[in-house]
Amino acid sequence: MAEPEKNQIVLKGISGAPGICIGKAYLVDREGVDLIKRYPISEEGVPAEINRFKNAVKRATDEHAAIIDSLHNDLREQMDILETHLVLFKDKMLYGKTIETIKTDRINAEWALKKVSRQIRRMFMKVNDPYLKSRVTDIAQVSEQVMRHLVGAQDIRISDINKRVILVAHDLSPADTSQIQLELIKGFVTDRGGKDSHTGIIAKSLAIPAVMGLGNVTHCVENDDILIVDGNSGVLIINPEEDTLFSYEARRANYEHQQASLARDSHLPAVTLDGVKMRLMANIELVEEVVSVRDNAAKGVGLFRTEFLYIDLKRFPSEEELFEKYKEVVELLTPKPVTFRTLDINGDKVLPYMKGVEEENPALGLRAVRFCLKRPEIFITQIKAILRAAAFGNTRLLIPMISCVDEIIKVKEIIGKAVEELKKEQKVFNQDIPLGIMIEIPSAVIIAEDLAEHVDFFSIGTNDLIQYSMAIDRRNRQVAHLYHTMNPALIRMVKMVVDAANKKNIEITMCGEMAGDPLNLPILMGLGLRELSMNSMSIPLINQMVRRLNAVDTRAFVEKVIKMGKASDIEAFVKETYGNILSD
Ligand code: PEP
Ligand code: MG
């Protein structure tokens, strides 16, 4: 009898790693581990039962150590996570307590281990510390590894899979994930896990599509079912209809094509024909974008717009919550620098949970650093989180919307207070990080030399600099025609800022959108900028442009541009001079 046609099912989970893959399901069987029975042990039987437990731990530890040994040296991230797990096997709470429970309750090792790991997990869940909370998963995974050896359940042996499949599992531990052979496993989906989990981090580093936190995917999928894993949007489609399959095939091919051409270009050094090096950095808003930072070969994060972590929540985040996120980004990118821009809310980014004074003109109101100085407790919390994350890698601190010297002095006082608190609390932190300011208000351009006395670097924010110098609301379509990066006023202001930074010997970069448009590149290079930060997707194209330019020529070119009085003339001049490179 022919099998009945299966219906298409669409499940929404969390994106574990980006990318799209289509293939057959392979269920990772964990039966045996979940069906634990409780049985009593006689008093004389206790030592043997403890030994049985110790042996299982030993076998699990040996197996785990072998996995670590088999890893390549450049998989540092995975190695760190696995080494943490190695320590957990002999953790007093888990190991010691299980032995004690076998003795006191006189029960079998499986039940004792299950009981203890459940207690630890409950205890950690109550703690108000997201870091400790996330360790719950580690403990569950380590005890499951031991449990497998206790019950003699079949190993999942991901390393033994010999066909191209998509893994479907209740959960995958970092140890499981590390065994994934990239040429065989197309992607994976799990019931558990989230974007913050270690498994998610590893999936991203492996760059295979993954959707996690699907709830009960293991009960919806059968072996050999056709699956579409869309790691970009966190969607899983089981037994897709023909149309869906066709459209996803096209999407997958398109995505892979894009990735391949991007990757090919972006890993070449961004050096001009006459040997001038440009540092191309990425602007990000979310931790998840780190993948794209890497894929596009950014030299670090030049602008981390931190407000999005505040917008996502229903309240102001705690120092611990922020620290966890910041640390993750810093660790993922180290030794590349991560530039944390402090909270830039109000203006156009409003926090839904913040009831404040209604402002007639929010862009000119209590925005960014002005808000932070008015609410120092919120500011200090963020600065403490950044300084703590700075202990884990290369970090820079960037303050938005500085309009006068007094503000930067006040900011430094707040940083001083944050440092005092961290010392008192005996937390690990690093206060020795470059302090920079966004130059995005015309007054800051005019007093740039004075401001330079107080900071280590400038970052030019052209998005706001245009808004405030041209008096154009960034979001108002009625005046959008005036919003032009080739406006002579803007170009001359950029020159003033670069000259001031060079004179005062501080670093200078640009992180406004102007930096990501290839048309602007000859001007920016000619003005002397050597570091630009942009949406990471723009990097490959800018990189390609850099490799086709002569820095010396751009200097001569800009000398003419600076004397021009109309944006349209400047644009025509850029196209006339560099059109051949651009049109390509
Ligand atoms: C800018 O103003 O140019 C900038 C980079 O910051 P934002 O767009 O976040 O205001
Ligand atoms: Mg800005």
From TrEMBL:
<feature type="binding site">
    <location>
        <begin position="463"/>
        <end position="464"/>
    </location>
    <ligand>
        <name>phosphoenolpyruvate</name>
    </ligand>
</feature>
<feature type="domain" description="PEP-utilising enzyme C-terminal">
    <location>
        <begin position="261"/>
        <end position="550"/>
    </location>
</feature>
<dbReference type="InterPro" id="IPR008731">
    <property type="entry name" value="PTS_EIN"/>
</dbReference>
<dbReference type="Pfam" id="PF05524">
    <property type="entry name" value="PEP-utilisers_N"/>
</dbReference>
<feature type="binding site">
    <location>
        <position position="341"/>
    </location>
    <ligand>
        <name>phosphoenolpyruvate</name>
    </ligand>
</feature>
<dbReference type="InterPro" id="IPR015813">
    <property type="entry name" value="Pyrv/PenolPyrv_kinase-like_dom"/>
</dbReference>
<feature type="active site" description="Proton donor">
    <location>
        <position position="511"/>
    </location>
</feature>
<keyword id="KW-0813">Transport</keyword>
<dbReference type="GO" id="GO:0009401">
    <property type="term" value="P:phosphoenolpyruvate-dependent sugar phosphotransferase system"/>
</dbReference>
<keyword id="KW-0670">Pyruvate</keyword>
<keyword id="KW-0808">Transferase</keyword>
<dbReference type="GO" id="GO:0016301">
    <property type="term" value="F:kinase activity"/>
</dbReference>
<dbReference type="InterPro" id="IPR000121">
    <property type="entry name" value="PEP_util_C"/>
</dbReference>
<feature type="binding site">
    <location>
        <position position="464"/>
    </location>
    <ligand>
        <name>Mg(2+)</name>
    </ligand>
</feature>
<dbReference type="GO" id="GO:0046872">
    <property type="term" value="F:metal ion binding"/>
</dbReference>
<dbReference type="GO" id="GO:0005737">
    <property type="term" value="C:cytoplasm"/>
</dbReference>
<feature type="domain" description="PEP-utilising enzyme mobile">
    <location>
        <begin position="162"/>
        <end position="234"/>
    </location>
</feature>
<feature type="binding site">
    <location>
        <position position="305"/>
    </location>
    <ligand>
        <name>phosphoenolpyruvate</name>
    </ligand>
</feature>
<dbReference type="Pfam" id="PF00391">
    <property type="entry name" value="PEP-utilizers"/>
</dbReference>
<keyword id="KW-0598">Phosphotransferase system</keyword>
<keyword id="KW-0418">Kinase</keyword>
<comment type="similarity">
    <text>Belongs to the PEP-utilizing enzyme family.</text>
</comment>
<comment type="function">
    <text>General (non sugar-specific) component of the phosphoenolpyruvate-dependent sugar phosphotransferase system (sugar PTS). This major carbohydrate active-transport system catalyzes the phosphorylation of incoming sugar substrates concomitantly with their translocation across the cell membrane. Enzyme I transfers the phosphoryl group from phosphoenolpyruvate (PEP) to the phosphoryl carrier protein (HPr).</text>
</comment>
<keyword id="KW-0762">Sugar transport</keyword>
<protein>
    <recommendedName>
        <fullName>Phosphoenolpyruvate-protein phosphotransferase</fullName>
        <ecNumber>2.7.3.9</ecNumber>
    </recommendedName>
</protein>
<dbReference type="InterPro" id="IPR006318">
    <property type="entry name" value="PTS_EI-like"/>
</dbReference>
<feature type="binding site">
    <location>
        <position position="474"/>
    </location>
    <ligand>
        <name>phosphoenolpyruvate</name>
    </ligand>
</feature>
<feature type="binding site">
    <location>
        <position position="440"/>
    </location>
    <ligand>
        <name>Mg(2+)</name>
    </ligand>
</feature>
<keyword id="KW-0460">Magnesium</keyword>
<feature type="active site" description="Tele-phosphohistidine intermediate">
    <location>
        <position position="198"/>
    </location>
</feature>
<keyword id="KW-0963">Cytoplasm</keyword>
<dbReference type="InterPro" id="IPR008279">
    <property type="entry name" value="PEP-util_enz_mobile_dom"/>
</dbReference>
<dbReference type="InterPro" id="IPR023151">
    <property type="entry name" value="PEP_util_CS"/>
</dbReference>
<keyword id="KW-0479">Metal-binding</keyword>
<dbReference type="InterPro" id="IPR040442">
    <property type="entry name" value="Pyrv_kinase-like_dom_sf"/>
</dbReference>
<feature type="domain" description="Phosphotransferase system enzyme I N-terminal">
    <location>
        <begin position="12"/>
        <end position="135"/>
    </location>
</feature>
<dbReference type="InterPro" id="IPR036637">
    <property type="entry name" value="Phosphohistidine_dom_sf"/>
</dbReference>
<dbReference type="InterPro" id="IPR024692">
    <property type="entry name" value="PTS_EI"/>
</dbReference>
<dbReference type="InterPro" id="IPR036618">
    <property type="entry name" value="PtsI_HPr-bd_sf"/>
</dbReference>
<dbReference type="GO" id="GO:0008965">
    <property type="term" value="F:phosphoenolpyruvate-protein phosphotransferase activity"/>
</dbReference>
<dbReference type="InterPro" id="IPR050499">
    <property type="entry name" value="PEP-utilizing_PTS_enzyme"/>
</dbReference>
<dbReference type="Pfam" id="PF02896">
    <property type="entry name" value="PEP-utilizers_C"/>
</dbReference>
